[in-house]
Every structure is written in structure tokens, then in C-alpha cells.
Write a structure and sequence with these properties.
alpha/beta, Rossmann fold, 7-stranded parallel sheet, 14% strand
């Protein structure tokens, strides 16, 4: 694989599992310096060490809370001190809970919005400070298919991911004059730990006396509605993110790109 990101510094939040880990591996394959962040320091350190050993890149791991401003400042300050630039920042950390509208705790609603939306804004804000000084950069935000179309039992998640698209478009307008592009991607059903949770909890809520969903059965049913007839893999998403970070995407900003096998065509 090409080394088109050699010498570039890529920051990724939520980098120790699922889509985030897949994105980190893709950038490691292409020679980037990695700054990997997660609220699980042990796991993100393991991920960084593994990628450094396998691909010969330099990887810094930090344990942070993306909703904590001091943590976010530390993330970019230490990344810049280590590598001398912040070239790409992928705001990927996110959470979900699933429940009936009248049973969902207010605390769950607030937390999902805080992590998924406020966390993206804080990451973009801090990364952009370095990118403006450099005169270039790529901000890439994780939205969702629910950023396009809400789904049952997750109004807070849909709101948070629609908010990510709004942040993306607004910042794209403001930062374009600094040669900074801002884009989002909207994954559909992607094989990951989050989807294991979704399969279990949605399956429990949607089960009836006539139809019970066992492990994997609900996801299999939903996959039948995907035109490409398969769930996505983190590597599928990582390919898109690498493109958005590359010179090939220099004339692309303010976009939210669906990556869902054709499930939502808009």
C-alpha cells in the first residue's frame, strides 16, 4: 500500500475498537503518525502498540474524555508536541443507548448528545487552531445513517448525528479560507461491538410472543434490505476516511457521505 500519509499526523478519537480501530489501521498502513485517543487507556495503548509494531509507524495513545475541554486540549497539544503538526483529525468517538421514549432516562439523552455532538465540536475546535496556523488540514466527523434518517427508540442518537452534519457544514464554510476541509461520513450497519449491542437490545425490544430474535438474527434480517446484501466492515469505512484525508479530496468540503451499501440513497 502507498505511503501517502508519511510524515502526516492523524488524530483519531474512539480509536480502540470498531470503526475507529479500522481507521487507525488504514492510516498506519499508509505511513501516518498516529495520535489515538479513547476513554479506555489500556485498550487504546494496546491498539497503538500493535499498529506501531506491525506497520513501523509512531503511535501515541492517550486516555481522554471527549467532552472534557482540558482533555481535548491535552490531546492536540501532546500530539503536536510529539509530531510537529496536526494534519488530519477524525472525530469518531460515539455512544448509543436504545429505549422506549417514555422509559429513556434524561441522563442517557444528555450523555449521548454530549459525547456524539459536543465531543465532535470540541475536537474540531481544538484541531482547527493548529490547522489554521499551518494553513491546511482535514477535519473528518463520524455521523451515521441516523444523521440522515431517524430510527425507532433512538431519538437522542438521531439528534446527535444530525447535529454532527450541521457542525460539519457550518465549520466547512468558516474554515474554507484557511484551506481546511470539513466532511462527515454516515455509516450504516457496520460489523463492530456497537452493532453487537444494537442487535441484542433492539432485538429484545422488537421481539414479540410470535417472533423472538436470537443473537445475530435481527441484524441478518436488516442486512437483507441492503442492496449490496452484506454488512459493512470497519475497513470499508476506513477507505472512505483515507480518501477524505487525501489530496484527491482537496475540492470536497461540507459533505456528509453515506457508506451503507446503498441502504439510504440521498
Amino acid at each position: 500500500m502507498s505511503q501517502r500519509f508519511s510524515g502526516k499526523t492523524v488524530v483519531i478519537t474512539g480509536a480502540c475498537r470498531g470503526i475507529g480501530a479500522g481507521i487507525a489501521e488504514r492510516f498506519a498502513q499508509e505511513g501516518a503518525n498516529l495520535v489515538l485517543a479513547s476513554n479506555d487507556l489500556e485498550r487504546v495503548t494496546f491498539t497503538a502498540d500493535q499498529l506501531a509494531q506491525e506497520y513501523g509507524v509512531d503511535a501515541l495513545a492517550l486516555g481522554i474524555d471527549v467532552t472534557n475541554e482540558d482533555d481535548i486540549e491535552k490531546l492536540y497539544r501532546e500530539g503536536h508536541a510529539r509530531f510537529g503538526s496536526i494534519d488530519v483529525s477524525v472525530q469518531n468517538a460515539g455512544i448509543i443507548t436504545i429505549d422506549h421514549y417514555d422509559k429513556m432516562p434524561r441522563a442517557d439523552f444528555d450523555k449521548v448528545l454530549h459525547v456524539n455532538t459536543t465531543g465532535v465540536w470540541l475536537g474540531c475546535r481544538e484541531a482547527a487552531k493548529y490547522m489554521v496556523k499551518q494553513g491546511s488540514g482535514r477535519l473528518i466527523n463520524t455521523s451515521s445513517g441516523q444523521g440522515r434518517q431517524g430510527f425507532i427508540y433512538t431519538p437522542h442518537y438521531a439528534a446527535s448525528k444530525m447535529g454532527v452534519i450541521g457542525i460539519t457544514q457550518s465549520l466547512a464554510l468558516e474554515l474554507a479560507r484557511h484551506n481546511i476541509t470539513v466532511n462527515a461520513f454516515c455509516p450504516g450497519i457496520i460489523e463492530s461491538e456497537m452493532w453487537d449491542y444494537n442487535d441484542r437490545v433492539w432485538g429484545e425490544i422488537l421481539s414479540t410472543d410470535e417472533k423472538r430474535y436470537g443473537k445475530g438474527e435481527l441484524m441478518a434480517e436488516w442486512v437483507k434490505n441492503i442492496p449490496l446484501r452484506r454488512a459493512g466492515k470497519p475497513s470499508d469505512v476506513a477507505g472512505l476516511v483515507a480518501f477524505l484525508a487525501s489530496d484527491d479530496a482537496a475540492y470536497l468540503t461540507g459533505q456528509a457521505i453515506n457508506i451503507d451499501g446503498g441502504l439510504i440513497m440521498s
